[in-house]
Amino acid sequence: MNNLKFSPLKKLEIILEGEHQEFVTDLLDHAGVKGYTIVNNLSGKGSQGFHEGHLMFNEDAVLNMIITAVPEHLVNPIMEGFAPFFNKHSGVVFVSDIQVTRLEKFNKN
Amino acid sequence: MNNLKFSPLKKLEIILEGEHQEFVTDLLDHAGVKGYTIVNNLSGKGSQGFHEGHLMFNEDAVLNMIITAVPEHLVNPIMEGFAPFFNKHSGVVFVSDIQVTRLEKFNKN
Amino acid sequence: MNNLKFSPLKKLEIILEGEHQEFVTDLLDHAGVKGYTIVNNLSGKGSQGFHEGHLMFNEDAVLNMIITAVPEHLVNPIMEGFAPFFNKHSGVVFVSDIQVTRLEKFNKN
Fold first, then answer.
1. Which of A36, B40, B88, B106 sits at 20 to 30 Å (Cα–Cα) from C17?
2. Predicted ipTM?
């Protein structure tokens, strides 16, 4: 079976307050990233104290993780787009190496 | 303390519509994979448009991520088993290198 | 833009029954780990049988995944701290290489 597509990409896992999610997804859209997956209602502890997902009264304050896979040459432009945001807001980005199938969903045309 | 087991494995993160979850877990079971973890109710955007987990009326249409760890020699057979499925259905598989403890839960006898 | 901080770290993904979550977060706190993110209400299948998150009656029995990023020199001490726990309890730890921005949230002063 030779129709399986396998390509090295960079996985970004972006964890931030849910209220700022659109800033990230808009930036990914503009960078040509076609697909991402969002894990909602995370809890987290960071320098800003403990955010307990299911005890939050303000729904906008819960944490989300946005997972996407991008070609390596997009990592730096995306990170530079995030930098001013993460200088002001709580959040973190994990970058790692992955192999991905169905590249057409994650790559620019 | 020498009783901690550490082994290099491949992590598979399989993101697909929840209604097809059993196809994947059955295939993993048949491949001898003993353990996996499922993150339910993901949102996602891909070439099929935006799937907003918490707004879905049809519970079966939300996205799930199935996380598992397998020995390297199982990656290709599993991927070849997935290929016909991903030619027809929305979804993606991320493959990455990990070190795992408690290998006995993730490896074939 | 040169103010983006990028550092190689080890990502730990610790999957265990939610009722034991505090053991892990306390150990991480004592190891000087400043931040972690928790994905709640996972389903899982392992040698202990199938744990179906949304069908659980006992809320304490669902699985959680605790995600954190630590400097490499902390991996072994943390793992050795986990070892007695994982000899008695269900769970798994995935260790992988990542690049992280906002290191100050995940590193010891």
1. A36
2. 0.79
